[in-house]
Specification:
Length: about 190
């Protein structure tokens, strides 16, 4: 496959989780963020693996990234994201719940976000405080943070341990009784109305 043919020994695989513009991040900001991520991967000598968001047409994202200079990137859309994350050495995101899969795979993760959106995104996701995911602004040093997370095993362990705690806190009980809890909650709501 395309993925296996491009992997080289000693070259870090960097997963980029794409997203789409929304109320917090404009198309222009997203292009700047992706450009910063591409530049960092090129500087650290990595291989970029782009996980295309299911809501985004593949040809659009390929065209965008090629225009931004990611000519040797590997594009993947339909895959087991946990296995893909586990195969990578580092992951980048803007904001996405797909980060849960990266945390499950125990792959170091960095968020790149515009300064003005960081507080709102932290309030929504809580990634940087609870899961210890570094958040880099557009003018921040993504290269240094990437190199640190790739090389510093104790820093990786801190993030992985925090990620496990984050997942435990946000996943809820896995006791097979979710249906019963939902039914009870619906009954309570019906009785109170």
């Amino acid at each position: 496959s395309n993925f296996e043919n491009k992997i080289q020994d000693g070259v870090p695989l960097v997963l980029l989780l794409t997203t789409y513009a929304d109320a917090l991040i404009t198309d222009g900001q997203l292009k700047k963020i992706y450009s910063k991520m591409i530049g960092a991967v090129n500087t650290i000598g990595g291989q970029l693996v782009i996980k295309v968001h299911l809501q985004t047409p593949l040809n659009e994202i390929k065209s965008l990234f090629e225009d931004l200079g990611a000519t040797s990137a590997i594009f993947i859309r339909d895959t087991d994201l946990i296995k893909l994350s586990a195969a990578c050495d580092l992951a980048y995101m803007v904001h996405t719940t797909a980060a849960h899969n990266v945390l499950m795979a125990q792959t170091p993760l960095i968020a790149v976000q515009p300064q003005e959106a960081q507080a709102q995104l932290e309030a929504i996701y809580g990634f940087s405080q609870t899961a210890k995911i570094p958040v880099v602004a557009l003018d921040g040093d993504l290269i240094a943070i990437s190199q640190d997370l790739l090389k510093n095993k104790s820093r990786q362990k801190i993030q992985i341990d925090a990620g496990v705690r984050y997942l435990e806190e946000h996943s809820g009980p896995s006791d097979g009784k979710a249906t019963e809890r939902f039914a009870e909650k619906i009954q309570e709501l019906l009785k109170s109305s």
